[in-house]
Amino acid sequence: MKQVAIGRKNWLFIGSIPAGERAANLMTLVSSAVRNDLHVWSYVKGVLDALLSGCTNYHSLRPDVWATDHPDQIRTYRVDERRDKADRKQRQRAQRRAQRLAAQA
Questions:
Q1: What does the pLDDT read at residue 1?
Q2: pTM given for the model
Q3: Residue 28 lies in domain
Q4: Closest CA to 38 of 2, 1, 69, 16
Q5: How far is CA 43 from the centre of its chain?
Q6: Quick one: 44 and 68 in the same domain?
């Protein structure tokens, strides 16, 4: 959502309707790469190269499928960050529950 909020004023003067659609398509590619923990530059370059070479197998260009074909382009530190965040959240919840139970006793 931060990308959308930052881009609002920038996209106000994008030029034309087709230019806005192209920008939205590119932003969709970038956002899907980020959501799937892919190296963004490699994913976008790979997809654009495949499309320019005439590839019509669009299923293979999906980020989840592309990640299985290119495991070296997955940003593993993002997976670790997400797991650490979930663990931290779970510990904080457990601490709050313990504090509530101690206060009630």
A1: 63
A2: 0.66
A3: 2-74
A4: 69
A5: 11
A6: yes
